[in-house]
Amino acid sequence: MDQELEDALFRDFPLTYKICKSINCGNGWEPAIRKFSSKLEEIIAAMPAEEQPKYYVRRIKSKRAMLHFHLDYENSEISTLIKEAYKQTESACEDCGEPGKERVNSSGWVTIECDTCFQ
């Protein structure tokens, strides 16, 4: 993900990304990550102050054509958010966000790409 988009997520959702160092996926998945982040930020903010510190995203990455969120703690509400984000990205091009499908790119990695980005 471009540094500008990543920095905006870190700035806009400080409770969610208090220790996250990077988001390793294409720009096309930013809308799904932003939606997830917004909802997670609300969940964390609504928790008792003593519970908030243990809920945060440690890392986000693309692996085997799937968006992976790494958190130390999650509850059923957060698990549901993660499933929603997976669903949003399962057929969206990782690079541009347009409809795509699973493919093996020139580097041998399995990704979700549209016809244009795959070229």
Textual characterization of the structure:
By secondary structure, this protein is an alpha+beta fold. Helix content is 38%, strand content 19%. The chain contains 4 helices and 5 strands; from the N terminus they run H-E-H-E-E-H-E-E-H. Helix 2 packs antiparallel against helix 3. The relative contact order is 0.16.
Outline of the structure:
This protein has 119 residues and is α+β, with helices and mostly antiparallel strands.
Task: Explain the layout of strands and helices.
Layout: H1 3-12, E1 23-24, H2 30-46, E2 57-63, E3 66-71, H3 76-89, E4 101-104, E5 110-113, H4 115-118
Parallel strand pairs: 1-2
Antiparallel strand pairs: 2-3, 4-5
Helix pairs in contact: 2-3
What keywords describe this structure?
three-stranded mixed beta sheet; single chain; alpha+beta; 4 helices; 119 residues; 38% helix
What is the radius of gyration computed over CA atoms, rounded to a whole number of angstroms? Answer: 15 Å
The helix/strand series, from N terminus to C terminus, equals HEHEEHEEH
Count the strands?
5
Task: Give the integer mean of the pLDDT values.
Answer: 95
Strand content range: 15-25%
